[in-house]
Amino acid sequence: MAGRLTVFVSEEFKEVYRKWKAKELTAGESMQEAGVKKNSFYKLVKALEEETANLL
Hints:
By secondary structure, this protein is mostly helical. It has three helices and no strands. The chain has helices at 11-21, 27-34, 38-55. Helix 1 runs antiparallel to helix 2 (27-34).
């Protein structure tokens, strides 16, 4: 078994995330705009937040 792939957060997803955090989009709208399902959306959110936390 190869293990899980690392999560890649695209620039497009970062923009959707920014709109979601600014309450311009609901979570459902964000998932639809990003073209991902619920589990994938929250995995990407977690990865982006961890990436951002590591930069501080």
